Amino acid sequence: MPADIASRSNSRFARLRIRPYWRYWHYVLVAVGCVLVLTLLAASHTHSRFGVEAVQAVQDSKARVARLDQVLLTMADAETSVRGYLLTRSDVYLEPYRDSEQRIGPLLADLEKDFAPGAPDRDEFEVLKELIHLKREHMARGVASGRLTEPIAPGQVGPGKAFMDQIRLSLTILREHRSSIDDRLVREYLARLDDMQNAVTALALGALGLIIALFGVQQRQTALRARIAELLAHENTELESIVEQRTRDLSNLASYLTNAREEERGRLARELHDELGALLTAAKMDAGWLLRSLGPGTTQDIRDRFKRLIDTIGSGIAVKRRIIDDLRPPLLQGLGLVEALRALADDFSRDLEVEALLPDPDPAPAEDQALALFRIAQEAFTNIRKYAHASHVELGLRLEDGELQLWIRDDGAGFDPDSPMLNRHGLAGMKHRVQMFGGSLEVISRPGKGCCIEARMPLQPQAA
Amino acid sequence: MSAAARTPLKIVLVEDSALLRDLLSGMLKGIAGIEIAAVADSEKGAIETLLQTRPDLAIIDLELRGGTGLNVLAATHQAPQRFGELRTVVFSNHAHAIVQGRCRALGALAFFDKSFQMEELLEWIQTEAERKRRGPA
């Protein structure tokens, strides 16, 4: 690739070069996202646990208040029952009293847990316990004696009622206190729930933001990849067209050189034949005439010199002929390709065995096509003579479905057809001659296995 | 001697080199009973000249200014009646056996190597001229 193309494509891709830290950017995003989602999971877990705890706290609070109400109800039941008994003296009325006596014990035991020592309302609870104790004793005495124990002065309340009022008061205090504490607790729980809710919302928003950011990164990379692919495709097309153009140029140049070489050879051959050939022939004829015209008095010496002159000119003519034949196929035009090939094989058969498999009639290709095929055969024979050390050569020509096939097969030394050294042996020239006629050249050879060169091209018939 | 017996052998020389044409004409003129009727230096010109002059003999070089002597031979061989009693010999530098074979196949009576068989050609023509002088056998 030429330097200008290389630098051009480099500068184009420079804009796309990714900065190193950018490469790790989306990994960081994914890691942060994972942390966010895990935190979100933990937070929502805590959130729901707080919820459960808040519900539990509310339930506990309700149960405690209910227990206090239960105490009041039980004591009220007991008082009513005792009062009924004292009025009627019927044992039936004592039933609720006995029942409440049984229930109050466990109730107080439960309350003992609610107001454990050290709890803020422990003192009030102690008071309540004492009041209940006194009230129960008072009721027990009433039941045992069957009458109210102390006479009550008019306008005054009896101790039973006083105890009951105090119990009510104490219970109310405890209840309200308890309620306010529980309310505070519930509010705290709700506040914590609220905080938690906010944290979860923030985390979820963060995760959402990350997802959007990742999507953005992804989109950017996809766009980047598409742009790179587009640039590469563009670059490829450009390079391909440049290569095509260069190939065309080279092919044209090779065609031009081949044709120019043929023309030059033809011109040289013509000049050698027309000018030098005629001169030599004329000189030889004149010399012959002179020899014949020598008078009888001429010495043998002069006659010998004349004969030698004629022989020398003859040798010159033979050299000229060989040069011309080499420059230009002898009478390819007049003899036709088949006869010219036969003459070639014939010349060659003085050195080794040549088998010519030539068609009859001559397929009569156009002049330049015949010349190309003849040159290929000539080149192949030259190579065989120089390098192959063959003992048998087959020269073939055949016309099949409008395609001319020429092959030259020898049983010589062979070679590696992939070796770059082969172009020196004229294979590139052969290939080009074939390509000029839209054909193909195949060279099959292996070291020690001989060689077969096969040229195929569509027949171009002679113009009528 | 009859009038027919004195008729010279009419020859057309087909040769693209002016120098050789002159030289050959000069040598042929040395032979008795010969008339150089015309000369030609191209394939087309040769065929036209042969049709016009109707010679007894054509001495044809294979390499011509335009075309080849082989095509001239082919033309005379294909339609002999158009050329009369024409006889042909080839005088050329292309002495390859295959070329000679082709020439004979196209009706050439003899083939002479331009560079080495000048004498033979002259002798052959002399024999022809004598044969013509004696009249048909």
Automatic annotation (TrEMBL), chain A:
Any one annotated GO CC term: membrane
PROSITE patterns, per database record: HIS_KIN
Transmembrane parts of this sequence: 21-43, 199-217
First-level EC class: transferase
GO molecular function per UniProt: ATP binding; phosphorelay sensor kinase activity; protein dimerization activity
InterPro entries noted in UniProt: CHASE3, HATPase_C_sf, HATPase_dom, His_kinase_dom, Sensor_HK_TwoCompSys, Sig_transdc_His_kin_sub3_dim/P
The protein, known as: histidine kinase
Catalytic activity: ATP + protein L-histidine = ADP + protein N-phospho-L-histidine
UniProt KW keywords: ATP-binding, Kinase, Membrane, Nucleotide-binding, Phosphoprotein, Transferase, Transmembrane, Transmembrane helix, Two-component regulatory system
Its EC number(s): 2.7.13.3
UniProt domain Histidine kinase: residue ranges: 267-461
From TrEMBL, chain B:
Protein name: Response regulator
InterPro entries in the cross-refs: Bact_response_regulator (IPR050595), CheY-like_superfamily (IPR011006), Sig_transdc_resp-reg_receiver (IPR001789)
Record Pfam families: Response_reg (PF00072)
Superkingdom assignment: Bacteria
The Response regulatory domain, residue ranges: 10-129
Source lineage: Bacteria, Pseudomonadati, Pseudomonadota, Betaproteobacteria, Rhodocyclales
GO BP terms, alphabetized: phosphorelay signal transduction system
Positions of modified residues (4-aspartylphosphate): 61
Positions in coiled-coil regions: none
Gene3D superfamilies per UniProt: 3.40.50.2300
Keywords per UniProt: Phosphoprotein
